[in-house]
């Protein structure tokens, strides 16, 4: 479609005031765009990259009244502008042939914009692995991906993604989206498409260890703390849990996780360990000797503070990070423990690892913070969950159904693998991001094991990627209330909205 035709169609659409006239103009616009595929401009032809051939470059919109105003310049850039209505939704798309199934492709687009209500909401790039009709807004269950936005300046958005073409793909459509803004303009470069290598991850074997009533009879307890000059009860904890981890290492895992506060002594202060320090040295040696990652639940001495912590040790034997429990249990808040103040995520050879501890899971923000930090795996030492128990005063009663529901929900909502290590044994589990429980401890095993596949390939029924949809559909500019320290939800006085958030 040449520049003159696009500008003519855009001008016609902008001048149409009746629904019938707009419908007629829209049909003409799409017809011209489709007909022009056989005589593309020089700028169009220059778009074809990565051994792909450009079949069509065309306007698209789901219905006539929604079409934004479209213009095209001689250098291949596309301008999309609001059509003056809140129905505005549509844009421009390129359809390429010559896709090689299974090969990796990098897609890059830059947009300069002004006057938009919310650039993050209003602009998008979608890559659909097939031809896409310019009047269709449904994917037809064909596979598709989002390109991810970055914002180098207030008026610039860059979209990019690196994705493998599906095995049988022969075509790809790169669709530019302008929506949800009555006015404003956006100026788009032609897509840059180049071959790209796709990093291949290996399958990851994970173990969770636990102490059972039969552990002393079944597992030889080794004197791993000998010569470390630890308090006797701390030494016993090191020997016990080090021996359990060694048993797990017979499975040749890449990650082993313990329950909460297992490396510690009875005395609140003297039983706390320094990290790194004499109590972690035996575990550092195990990690190094067996080329594995360990996550240990410990009571940590942090200067003049005592913490409930999870310690990550890498396969090189070094402490790679420490997570300090952010949300203390009710009794812990009065015990002298100091809570943590962050949700760190650690890059490792097996992916990005974050940790939660016990009460953290009661606050859904905890797991989401780790997911937003890029976590692939959440390691979760935990004694229990008050929601998976009785809902009245009295002795605790474990509710397995609710426990499973809570842990599976955390995995699905945040698209992470949950590695749950429970004190008291029953309930330790390994869950994939689909919510499948891959391994479960009924309370009779010292070690449970599961393997995460290298590539799970999970897709939504409509062809989208589960992880992409989970995070690309977020609208964080609307979530300010989440971080309002004066908001206590239903505990706030009735009839009084949170300060600073007017009711409309």
Short description:
This protein is an alpha+beta fold and 504 residues long. The protein folds into two domains: 3-195, Sandwich (Jelly Rolls), CATH 2.60.120.680; 204-454, Carbon-nitrogen hydrolase (Nitrilase/N-carbamoyl-D-aminoacid amidohydrolase), CATH 3.60.110. 20% of the residues lie in helices and 29% in strands.
Protein model, in words:
Residues about 1-40 have low confidence and may be disordered. Strands 2, 3, 5, 8, 9, 11 and 12 form a seven-stranded antiparallel sheet that branches. Strands 17-16-15-14-13-24 form a six-stranded mixed sheet. It folds into two domains: about 5-195, Sandwich (Jelly Rolls), CATH 2.60.120.680; about 205-455, 4-Layer Sandwich (Nitrilase/N-carbamoyl-D-aminoacid amidohydrolase), CATH 3.60.110. A hairpin with a 6-residue loop joins strand 21 and strand 22. By secondary structure, the protein is of the alpha+beta class. Helix 1 packs antiparallel against helix 2 (about 20-35) and helix 6 runs parallel beside helix 7 (about 280-290). It has ten helices and 24 strands. Helix content is about 20%, strand content about 30%.
């Amino acid at each position: 479609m040449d520049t003159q035709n696009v500008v003519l169609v855009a001008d016609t659409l902008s001048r149409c005031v009746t629904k019938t006239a707009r419908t007629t103009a829209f049909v003409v616009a799409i017809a011209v765009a489709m007909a022009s595929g056989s005589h593309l401009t020089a700028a169009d032809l220059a778009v074809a990259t990565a051994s792909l051939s450009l079949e069509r470059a065309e306007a698209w919109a789901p219905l006539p009244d929604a079409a934004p105003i479209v213009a095209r310049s001689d250098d291949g850039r596309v301008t999309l502008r609001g059509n003056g209505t809140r129905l505005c939704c549509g844009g421009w798309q390129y359809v390429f042939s010559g896709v090689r199934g299974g090969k990796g492709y990098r897609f890059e687009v830059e947009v300069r914009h002004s006057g938009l209500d919310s650039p993050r909401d209003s602009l998008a790039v979608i890559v659909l692995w097939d031809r896409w009709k310019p009047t269709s807004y449904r994917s037809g269950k064909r596979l598709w991906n989002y390109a991810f936005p970055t914002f180098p300046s207030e008026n610039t958005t860059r979209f990019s993604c690196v994705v493998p073409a599906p095995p049988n793909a022969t075509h790809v459509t790169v669709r530019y989206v302008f929506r949800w803004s009555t006015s404003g303009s956006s100026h788009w470069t032609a897509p840059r498409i180049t071959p790209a290598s796709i990093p291949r991850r290996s399958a990851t074997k994970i173990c969770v260890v636990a102490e059972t009533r039969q552990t002393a009879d079944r597992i030889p307890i080794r004197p791993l703390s000998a010569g470390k000059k630890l308090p006797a009860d701390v030494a016993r904890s090191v020997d016990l849990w080090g021996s359990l981890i060694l048993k797990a290492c017979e499975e040749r895992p890449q990650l082993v996780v313990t329950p909460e506060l297992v490396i510690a002594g009875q005395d609140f202060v003297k039983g706390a360990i320094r990290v790194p320090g004499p109590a972690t040295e035996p575990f550092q040696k195990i990690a190094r000797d067996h080329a594995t990652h360990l996550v240990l639940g410990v009571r940590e001495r942090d200067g003049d503070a005592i913490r409930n912590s999870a310690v990550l040790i890498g396969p090189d034997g070094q402490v790679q990070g420490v997570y300090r429990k952010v949300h203390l249990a009710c009794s812990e808040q009065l015990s002298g423990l100091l809570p943590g103040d962050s949700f760190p995520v650690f890059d490792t050879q097996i992916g990005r690892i974050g940790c939660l501890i016990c009460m953290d899971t009661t606050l859904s923000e905890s797991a989401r913070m780790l997911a937003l930090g890029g976590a692939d795996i959440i390691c979760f030492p935990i004694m229990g969950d008050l929601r998976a128990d009785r809902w009245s005063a009295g002795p605790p009663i474990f509710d397995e159904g609710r426990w499973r529901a809570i842990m599976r929900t955390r995995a699905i909502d945040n698209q992470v693998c949950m590695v749950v290590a429970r004190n008291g044994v029953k309930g330790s589990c390994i869950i994939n991001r689909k919510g499948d429980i891959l391994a479960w401890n009924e309370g009779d095993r010292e070690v449970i094991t599961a393997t995460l596949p290298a590539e799970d390939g999970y897709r939504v029924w409509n062809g989208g990627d589960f992880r992409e949809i989970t995070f690309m559909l977020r609208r964080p500019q609307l979530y300010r209330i989440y971080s309002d320290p004066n908001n206590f939800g239903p505990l706030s006085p009735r009839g009084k909205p949170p300060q600073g958030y007017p009711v409309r």
